[in-house]
Design goal:
about 375 residues, alpha/beta, about 15% strand, 11 strands
Length: about 375
């Protein structure tokens, strides 16, 4: 992949509660799906790394999680992330909620006014994930139930919910630290879901192997949203479906990550300086407008206004949910609110290819 920077040469020590082994985290069915994200060739796995059989790139297994990242998390350097992980996992034996609180209140002191907001969103992600799975199935009737990929899975709330509906679930995220917190959540739920550290724009999976791909508020965090779209379609089986949610740049509500009203109206070059000044945190997010999303998904996905089930947004927002449910059904009001709604839903299905042909995805590589 042109211009990419492999992280496979970086090493770290193994401390804390998780053993540096892949045997308990990567089932054989998943190993058969893995490919090199740089060139698309087969990989050979061991307890400590996966190696590409063609370009010979090596992808280490860190704390039991394969690290197939081509680019680092934009919010933290690789070395700083490893240092934070070592602190997070020492001492061993803490619960999911203890790890979560420690990560934000102890290890991430730069934006304390936002911590409660972030933690509440993460703790509610299982219920939110279950609602998104229902929306996925409503948007794509007859969808299979064999295998789902949760892109940008974070602490694995949606993946946990999806395990009740799909026989095989995989979670992928660029942030290794969140995956480790998420694995503790899965351990406590007694659910065995493999987690992989990778980029949404360079998924380490073969073509056509997932029935469904879901990404909740991920599109705005990637380097290249069109590339994420293409990779999603590539790994879907013919007839498979994707369902994305994404926050609207021009929402009438405060920006969801910083809680600043009107932030999306700023020129993009001003956003990070303003975020640093007002919230003491970096801002690498790129929220899309309705028009931008329309260009990205033209011909491959449907852009819809959000709709929410009773209780999905929590008790404090239930009244607002009911009001929105009425307003979105009134055509003139719907037309007025469409450009400024907080979120959009994007759904689509991969068509069946013509007999004897492969489904082409622009911009992707052949494995």
């Amino acid at each position: 992949m042109a211009g990419s920077v492999s992280l496979c040469g970086i090493t770290t020590t193994n401390k804390g509660v998780f053993a540096l082994t892949s045997t308990s985290s990567i089932p054989s069915w998943l190993e058969s799906l893995l490919i090199c994200p740089a060139c698309g060739a087969d990989v050979e796995g061991s307890a400590r790394f996966f190696r590409c059989t063609a370009c010979l790139s090596q992808y280490p297994v860190r704390y039991g999680i394969p690290d197939f990242r081509m680019w680092p998390d934009p919010y933290i350097t690789v070395d700083d992330e490893f240092a934070k992980i070592r602190k997070l996992l020492t001492p061993a034996g803490r619960s999911f909620r203890e790890l979560l609180a420690d990560y934000y209140y102890v290890l991430s002191p730069e934006n304390p006014e936002l911590h409660a907001h972030y933690i509440a969103a993460i703790e509610g992600s299982v219920a939110r994930g279950a609602a998104l799975i229902r929306k996925l199935r409503a948007a794509s009737p007859g969808l299979g139930d064999r295998r789902l990929l949760d892109v940008g899975c974070g602490t694995a709330g949606l993946a946990l919910a999806a395990s009740r509906e799909f026989r095989e679930v995989v979670g992928v995220d660029v942030a290794l630290r969140y995956l480790l917190i998420g694995r503790q959540r899965l351990n406590e739920g007694e659910v065995d879901i493999p987690l992989i550290c990778a980029n949404a724009e360079a998924l380490p999976f073969r073509e056509g192997v997932f029935d469904a791909v879901v990404a909740d508020a991920v599109l705005e965090h990637v380097r290249d949203s069109a590339r994420m779209r293409d990779e999603t379609i590539r790994v879907l089986a013919p007839g498979g479906a994707f369902f994305f949610t994404t926050n609207n740049r021009f929402s009438i509500l405060p920006e969801p990550h910083l809680r600043i009203l009107g932030f999306g109206l700023l020129p993009r070059r001003w956003m990070e300086p303003v975020a640093l000044r007002l919230r003491r945190t970096a801002y690498k997010t790129r929220l899309h407008s309705r028009r931008e999303l329309g260009r990205v998904f033209r011909g491959v996905g449907r852009l819809d206004l959000p709709s929410y089930d009773p209780g999905e947004l929590g008790e404090r927002n239930e009244r607002a949910r009911r009001v929105w449910d009425v307003l979105r059904r009134i055509p003139p009001i719907r037309w007025l609110l469409t450009p400024v709604v907080p979120q959009y839903f994007i759904s689509g299905r991969k068509p069946d290819p013509l007999p004897g042909t492969r489904y082409p995805v622009p911009g992707t590589r052949d494995p």
